[in-house]
TrEMBL record:
Compartment annotation: Cell inner membrane; Cell membrane
Protein name, as recorded: Outer membrane transport energization protein ExbD
InterPro entries attached to this UniProt entry: ExbD
Signal sequence range: none
Lipid bilayer topology: Single-pass type II membrane protein
MF terms in GO: transmembrane transporter activity
Family: Belongs to the ExbD/TolR family.
Regions crossing the membrane: 20-39
Length: 136
């Protein structure tokens, strides 16, 4: 598409008018700014409230604990994070039906708890209970 100036009809102006391009980009930017928060919170879930339960056989349950300073314990014995998976694998080798309970201090970051759960899963534990306190 050629544009002409008022001076000479044979001169062709080959400059792009960027004003419509800027207008379109601003409209898209505003659209994305308005819709982005809605996409993150699209699914709203009300988690069920549960009553207190007890394990079927508490004598054979192993408890993994994470305290407020991110220290990991297996039945009140402190273990290093790197040695958690091998020790759990050894317990699973001794008892394939091992039931494990996980308890973590409420101040522990989710990342630390997720890493411990991943170690538990990789070690072969198939029965995992997450312990909480009853109430709100």
């Amino acid at each position: 598409m050629a544009f002409t100036t008022g001076r000479d009809s044979s001169d062709v102006v080959s400059e792009i008018n960027i004003t419509p391009l800027v207008d379109v980009m601003l409209v898209l930017l505003v659209t994305f700014i308005l819709t982005a928060p809605l996409l993150n919170n699209a699914v709203r879930i009300n988690l069920p409230k549960t009553s207190t339960t007890t394990p079927n056989n508490p004598s054979k349950t192993v408890t993994v604990s994470i305290d407020g300073s991110n220290k990991i314990f297996i039945d009140k014995r402190e273990v290093e994070p790197a040695s958690l998976e091998p020790e759990l694998r050894q317990l699973v080798d001794q008892n394939p039906e091992l039931a494990l309970s996980l308890q973590a201090d409420q101040g522990v970051p989710y990342r630390a708890v997720a890493k411990v759960i991943a170690n538990i899963q990789r070690s072969g534990v198939s029965k995992l209970s997450v312990l909480t306190e009853p109430g709100g």
